[in-house]
Predict the 3D structure of the following.
Amino acid sequence: MAIILCATRGGEEGYRTQDKAIAMAKERGDTLLFLYVVNLQFLDKTAAPIVVDVEDEISDMGEFLLLMAKERAAEQGVEANTICRKGNLRQEIKITALEENVSLVLLGRPVSDKSAFQLASLEKFAQEIESETGVKAEIV
């Protein structure tokens, strides 16, 4: 049984990507690994005690979102595990892909201009994942 890595977050785009990952894992008979990455670079100029509080709150939110994703997969009969990490999203996806010996990384296709990635940069990132890790990356 292979492992599909799906980085996730909240919101409609995240749920759409989760649904596609769940359907793919079910079709292939694979296990899912949902990843949530806490990245606090936007707080670099903020006082340290505030950063610690915010980091804890965002980590708790991430754990909750991962639990929801795992439950959504279980409802479809798909085994799923979760990992919450801290750091740079791009780096943590690649590190997790290698450490967890995944066979496929799924990246959610942007649906609006407000998406974290635009399609061209996401395609470049998928190529980067493949060249640096040897793991296939697919945009869904």
User: Anything to note?
Assistant: The domain at 3-139 is CATH 3.40.50.620 (Rossmann fold). The longest helix spans residues 48-75. The two ends are 21 Å apart (CA to CA).
